[in-house]
């Protein structure tokens, strides 16, 4: 796989990273000196009309020719691509790579002039905590349990599927989290993300009964303030989880709507208005009303974003749901938005992009450095770059692809997307094609501000998918070295297992050190430290160097330096790659890279293995 002409949205290729509408910025394309490229044009589509501008050679750097061309930021999202002309053919270079045939505009590179995400986010390492299962403080012992809860000892096995699954109650709380922050510090994270903390009638709390107070079972509002103080004292940030698509059926908005068809809350939901009036003209309520709910689950009634009153209560009012928890004494640094892909979508109603922009405006008005992250379980590409979500949980462009490449063993693993047949094994070519497809359909900015994750409270555990510590290390290596913001689900760093989302919500075995995989924890620590220490791993571009069925090799390039990464899922033939300089091994224990007389460096063939070099 010889090095190809290359461009991405990183600082080496787009030095102006936050352009404003009306700016003209220089973009660069890098062409290997031996490539058949005699002329380069940049094609833009300002106001929908294609225009071509000839690029000029800016410099020759070693074996690379750097071409430069201006691009006008004519629209909030301005597309561009390159036309490479050789002696015998012309090729397009767009965000998916070089092709010899015409392609539609949706795969073009993108300059985005909307306000950028907060600067701190690019250096974030996120740790996801499911509060009921993380840690239990002494204060939890004195709390009366609700009628729905099935009390469990910390060692009680989790029921991964069954009627009791949402009601098993372990009693983890916010003070328990605060007491365990040293573990997060040792691991190397700097951002704590909590799944919902509002009162509900389940252990997962996505069926909120209220948005105006913290669940007393977690310690209440005061416990959140204490945790926020403890997190901020370490220089970290705390993120919340909000459900914009639905509430629980015990939510006071919904109970008011059911009780009275004339209540203002009625319009906050989708009711099938067959309810009439009695002979006196009074409203008559059906004791079993018909209403829209999330995937038909009646306990999760769907919110109607066509309602101005919902927009006021949820977002725009001075004391709205979104605003309150971003302010002191809680000071959340932003929100992860549950089921963002469904929010505002129902039949002919299509409010999703309006809602995303509204929530973004309110969040940044309330706290200018806040992050707004969307959950998408499948294709997120049409919902980003619209001045709404800063990024997404990249299940389809990262999680599922890494799973399919490193999948091991015969135990069936359900596909997170619900695809029949579960997770299938694929080779590196298919993995690379999937990653590039989804990456190419959003801006570099949205891609690098999305969460890359190996699993979550909604999926199988990565250890169950890959089967052993060696492949787990390869997966963590990709998490730490690929572009985007790494997110770790609590317990993955210990090698915990789980076959599906509910089965993966395992209590942290603080008192069972024999259940910790010390080698896996050490790998997480070392790889996260490497990410922190190497600017190219946080801010660099991405250039693929080689792939074969068992191997992925790529470069992370930044003005501060270049890093070479080798990931192997199994042993294979050692590689000889031409065109790379000498390099110092930073992770994995392989020898330093030294070009031979033919200009080739040798990469080891053992595996599974993960290796990183800093290039000279």
Structure described in brief:
InterPro entries: GH, GH13_cat_dom, Glyco_hydro_13_lg-like_dom, Ig-like_fold, Ig_E-set. By secondary structure, the chain is an alpha/beta fold.
Helices, by number, come to 14
Choose one word for the global shape.
Answer: globular
Distance between the termini: 22 Å
CATH superfamily of the largest domain: Glycosidases
Q: Can you name the CATH architecture of the largest domain?
A: Alpha-Beta Barrel
Domain Glycosyl hydrolase family 13 catalytic: 128-531
Pfam families: Alpha-amylase
Keywords: Glycosidase, Hydrolase
Protein name: Glycoside hydrolase family 13 protein
Explain what this protein looks like in three dimensions.
- The chain is 21% helix and 23% strand.
- It is α/β, with parallel strands linked by helices.
- Strands 19-18-15-14-13-10-21-20 form an eight-stranded parallel β-sheet. Strands 2, 3, 6, 7, 8 and 9 form a six-stranded antiparallel β-sheet that branches. A five-stranded antiparallel β-sheet has the order 22-23-24-28-26.
